[in-house]
Amino acid sequence: MKSTRIFWKDESVGDAKQTLTRDEVAPAETWDLTPLYPTPAAWSEDLAELQRSHAEIAKFKGRVGESAAALRECLEFDKLLSLKIERLNHYAMLKGSEDSANDENLCREGLLENLLTKVAEMSAFMTPEIQAIDDAAFARFLADPILETWVISLKKIRRLKLHTLSECEERLLALGGSSLSGHHETFSQLTNVDMKFGTLVDEKGVERALTQSSFSSFLVQRDPAVRERAFRQFYVEFKDHQFTLAASLASSVRSDVFRARARNYPSAREAALFHDDVPVSVYDNLIATVRANLPALHRYYALRRRVLGLAEIHHYDTYVPMVANIDTRVSFDEATNKVIEALKPLGDEYVGTLAAGLQRQRWCDRYETKGKRSGAFSSSSYGNPPFMMMNYKDDVFSDVYTLAHEAGHSMHSWFSQRNQEFQNYDYPIFSAEVASTFNEELLTHHLLETTDDPRMRAYLINRQIDDIRGTVYRQTMFAEFEKITHAMEEAGEALTLETFRAAYRNLLDAYFGPNFAIDEELALECLRIPHFYSAFYVYKYATGMSASVALAGKVLNGGAADVEAYLGFLKSGGSKYPIPTLRDAGVDMSSPEPIARTLELFARRVDELETLLT
User: Which of 406, 433, 480, 489 is catalytic?
Assistant: First the structure.
């Protein structure tokens, strides 16, 4: 059974004096969900239909391995259910993201979650029965033309044979799915709804709401006192809830370890990487390569401290642009035009489709509203628009990059859907993060090419440095934290507030270096990162950017064949595993070389920035 996925990035910020409610925003600035369902009532009708029809899957129980025809019939019926589930889930998730406190949205998600538990329980027999087909019969089935469109997905299912349990065990895991994931909802409701951060006076003397979305807007202000006040006030709320958050994170780690052990994986990390057929060495190469290149990062922090005229540098000083007095207010429409212009090397089909989606077809929900989920994401379901959620603010230039990032996800989905069957279109996240950061690379190239102002060039280079810092260095630190905490649970060590804080503090000391002032509150950062509730995801940001730097260079400096190779990567969807897919596109991620080259680019950009600013 499939349900829609989202590709989420925690980079949205806010600057409103007060947060608007949903009905105060113009419809043209919100997404149009009518292609999914024209009304909430239509969603409810589809849910009722799924409630009536899902039990029919039971008629295939015991028959899956009878013949190629019987197997195909079962797979096609499951596909019909999955298409409906994906659409229902997509709409419910998007509506819930509009307002996490809206009871109707919460009820919709709850009803669907309860039903999906029953559907998963009812269909738990399928995978074990496919795994039980003997090798000779399975080979004959795959050779039968009737299963031609199912060969790829059947081979992937078969690969999971060692980690597929008996029917009764699969049923129990399906029944416990909602309970094992309850920490997600706890974290979301606590941080997005219950926690209140008050107001803060900015450097212009204006009192503004401090929210999860607006926090970063305060951190880019030039007055260091405002940045520090925002940081300390923000973390007061997290400190007040630190034990609850630590318990929730511990529950998430334990759930990951439980699932891995239940399915006979050596570790939770290997369980997470197995589905994409990514060797553990790729994960370890990333950490080792980044660790080896930390001196360049420390040198950058020293440069930042000198340029900003700070006696010492703190975490809240790492986001403000080093180049002052650059007007970076960019409206959403202007940002859209910049992104479309930057992506022109990818051809008319790519840019024309994206322009229509952003400018006329209302793919994007643009601005922060009360109760809206923080951050940004792209989300799709088969045959429907790839919707994007933003909390766009025109005074934070990184939001232009966030738009390019989410557009990369959306166009990846668009190309994949049009070139793959439903069962093969769902590409892995490892590949997804290439498509998104690739767009950011093209945007940086375009902006640098279209300015002759040395100060603007310094600003953009500073932005690229910070992008690599945030995507490669920072996400690798997060990935190392996930590796450490899951290893602690697997070794039987206690997962408490203090053990989380201690593990995270050690990483902060290593990654920020000996000349960086680490505030006590920063150790609580590990409790507010949503990605830690989807463990072993963040390393894909770092590997994705490393691959995208290499592929962007090929597209910008090569010919039509390089563009086609990249578009072929987008079109391939989930038809192949990510390492060979990227190898076909022109980059080998089984080697640490792409990561090392990206960090070499980082070091060169630090040198260039130092020259420009001094």
Answer: 406
